[in-house]
Amino acid sequence: MTKSILICGVGGQGILLASDILALTALKSGFDVKKSEVHGMAQRGGAVTSAVRFGAKVYSPLISENEADIILAFEKLEALRTIKHLKQGGIYIINNYELPPLCVSAGEIEYPTNIIPQLKKVAKEVILVDGLSLARQAGNPRTVNIVLLGALAQKLNFPKEKYFQVIEQRLPEKTWKVNKKAFLLGFSI
Description:
Blueprint: E1 3-10, H1 15-28, E2 32-38, E3 47-55, E4 68-73, H2 76-81, E5 86-95, H3 102-105, H4 115-120, E6 123-129, H5 131-138, H6 144-153, H7 160-170, H8 176-187
Parallel strand pairs: 1-4, 4-5, 5-6
Antiparallel strand pairs: 1-3, 2-3
């Protein structure tokens, strides 16, 4: 059976690194893996999404509407934008963080206040993660993406050691300790 994970957020939040680590971990665990990403205006704070699909045999990296088993959202509004992709009974893991888009900052519209109740209508489970607080506790606020990856790992069956192997493969050695701590803090949620 193929698992479909959609990771979403805003440019600069480390979404692509998190999806790379997840995809490589699934590959090291013996699965066929396909990954895709969309990062149009990411450098200007635009939306970024990455799809990771793994299973015995995966034919496409794309996640259609009502197909994502889990959506990992690095920002609340981006979670809401992906609602059509979550399958009924799927899981949302959401960073409890709001990064208002330009139209909100310019006063054209208001940031929605009812995001979580809307997500709970379609999700079996909505998990809010205080990613920034946990990343600071790990020793570096830039590790929010790894904290969130750790929270996601709690819902998957890959051994933590596989994630650590990939962290050591993809990140500079001087960051291994703080990233592993960040991962474990997210995993403990």
